[in-house]
Amino acid sequence: AIAQSGVGANLSVKMQDIAAKLKAGSAVNAVIPQAAFQAALTALNGGASSVLPAGVMPPAITLPVLPGSSLNNMIAGAVPSCASGQALQLGANGLTCAAVPATAGGNTGCPAGQTLNPLMQCVAAGTTGGGVPAAPAGVTTTANASSQITVSWSAVTGATGYDVYRSTTAGQVIAAMTKVTATPVTGISYADSSLTAATTYYYKVVALNAAGVSAASAEVTATTQAATGGTGGTPVGSQMGGARQGVVPTLSAAVTTYASLSSPSGITTDGTNLYVASSGTIQQVPIATGVPTTISGATSLGALGGVTTDGANVYAALPSGFAGSGNKILKLVIATGTVTTLAGSGTAGSADGTGTAASFNSPFGITTDGTNLYVTELFGNKVRKIVIATAVVTTVAGSGATGSTNGTGSAASFNGPSGITTDGANLYVGDTGNGKVRKIVIATGAVTTLAGSGVVGSVDGTGTAASFTDPRGLTCDGTNLYLADTSKSTIRKIEIATGIVTTLAGSGAWSLVDGTGTAASFSKPGDVTTDGISLYVADTNNGKIRKIQ
Prior knowledge:
Layout: H1 2-5, H2 11-21, H3 34-44, H4 57-61, E1 86-91, E2 94-99, E3 114-116, E4 122-124, E5 140-143, E6 149-152, E7 161-167, E8 178-179, E9 189-192, E10 200-209, E11 212-213, E12 220-223, E13 238-240, E14 243-245, E15 254-260, E16 264-269, E17 273-278, E18 281-286, E19 293-294, E20 307-309, E21 313-318, E22 328-333, E23 339-343, E24 353-354, E25 363-368, E26 372-377, E27 382-387, E28 392-397, E29 407-408, E30 417-422, E31 426-431, E32 436-441, E33 446-451, E34 461-462, E35 471-476, E36 480-485, E37 490-495, E38 500-505, E39 515-516, E40 527-530, E41 535-539, E42 544-548
Antiparallel strand pairs: 1-2, 3-4, 5-6, 6-9, 7-8, 7-10, 10-11, 10-12, 13-14, 15-39, 15-42, 16-17, 17-18, 18-19, 20-21, 21-22, 22-23, 24-28, 25-26, 26-27, 27-28, 29-33, 30-31, 31-32, 32-33, 34-38, 35-36, 36-37, 37-38, 40-41, 41-42
């Protein structure tokens, strides 16, 4: 249009007129012959030069383009993609790359350290070739539970982050949807939690970088699972955190002895069976019968720590110091009993990597949101993440130094973290050495103290007014946490929303007594899980599985 109507000193006015008529998804590509464009620049500069005067181009070419439209490649011919530290400049030979101007403006009219991208926007040097990223493709959804849907997509070239939008109505534009990512996601998936059971949700994803925001992806949809009710052995709620969540069990705090096993250290459930780490084996215990069966084979797996399940597999943490077999994360396929090493070299360390190229420093607690595993390092003082599908290991939080500092990612510190669980949005960690329960926001890595003063004790109270002796294994029903205060031999309850801590069961004496509430006793219980109806406790020193109902 500009090429046909002529160019001159009113070039920017004509371009703005065209931009105002652009529709979403339309484009103005290569419409200005280079010679005509150079002539227009010469006219704009009073005939003195064909080089763009400092400060003229960006104000003139900053246009109100709708999302999804484009003004790419307005000069006939390829737009150079400059290297880091270089900038686009307009000269007699058209657009070329040169060193970033040392002072504001330069030949680009942009501030120092910035350059023009193909959309004629000032962006950080080195980003000139990419422009606004393309809309994400390959978007899929998976309904993991009655309260969670995971949205995944393919990586977009040039994108530095992604935002996810949700609606309960199909066909909505982004502006009418709810942005569910508090901050842009840097990976290629997002677990959307706290959803309503048996409800259909619609999602779109956008990509972002310094140049702007992409058009929205194609809409995808998923329906959360129904929350079902039942009795022991019939699943209720939905699978999350190695337990059944979404249903708060009604507990009288009556404690009974449910099954006998050798030194049970970790316990998890899929609502039909319990899976227990017991003296180097994984035991399957049907909830309906309480009769254990070894499903991990005859060979000892070593002195196991925590276990978790996604319903198809059991994942076990193998701490360090056990005949060279430690510092690994094991995967057991429930249907076949096949055991493999999912991640960990076997050598103590905290190196991120894939599979056995990664290392752990005494991994102890473990949980899952169905897509990822989250592992505590007892000696490494970190919380690690493992993508189940790829075995890629990264660090979520923890500097590695012993401490109790709240902060984000590596700015936070722990002291011998052991137990861990998740509600899909947050992680909850038994920070044993600090005598606290810590909360980690999965999306950001932000660490705070949910409960515990740090002073050894067993005081009920709210938040940091409460105290623990030895907080280790814990589970979640989606509303409350249940914690094994191991050396105190009690089971504590923590309301997530308020931080209120109460003692659910256990007298504090190291013994084996069935009873209700504090009339019952345990001997150093190491872990706890829930099927949404009852709690099941790995009563380690007593060699028993105890049931609280």
